[in-house]
Write a sequence for this structure.
């Protein structure tokens, strides 16, 4: 089982509704995890108290940056996988767009559009 991100504090930047999921984009994240999160898009199924699917942008250590300063990672109960590394994932708009696309594919929500609520 994958380890979900641990969040002490974070600032909600955006909220979305997509099919039976609500999603919150978090920034300014304080976490005790070894990972340095830049953004987290957390998906909560309707009726559930906690998220079960995450797309994260994590800062890459300086020595590992030839391919970019941020890793795009997908985390759920079955996987924890880096999908890409690029400077683009440090940009809120670029991250949110790609994270929503990844979630639609992974959660089988291809026919549903994400509605931005905030």
């Amino acid at each position: 089982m994958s380890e979900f991100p641990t969040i002490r504090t974070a600032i909600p930047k955006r909220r979305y509704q997509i099919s039976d999921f609500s999603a919150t984009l978090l920034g300014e994240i304080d976490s005790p995890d070894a990972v340095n999160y830049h953004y987290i898009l957390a998906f909560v199924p309707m009726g559930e108290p906690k998220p079960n699917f995450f797309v994260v942008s994590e800062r890459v250590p300086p020595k590992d940056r030839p391919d970019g300063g941020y890793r795009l990672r997908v985390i759920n109960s079955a996987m924890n996988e880096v999908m890409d590394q690029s400077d683009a994932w440090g940009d809120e708009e670029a991250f949110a767009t790609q994270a929503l696309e990844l979630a639609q594919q992974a959660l089988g929500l291809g026919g549903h559009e994400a509605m931005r609520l905030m």
Remarks:
- The two ends are 32 Å apart (CA to CA).
- Helices lie at 92-106.
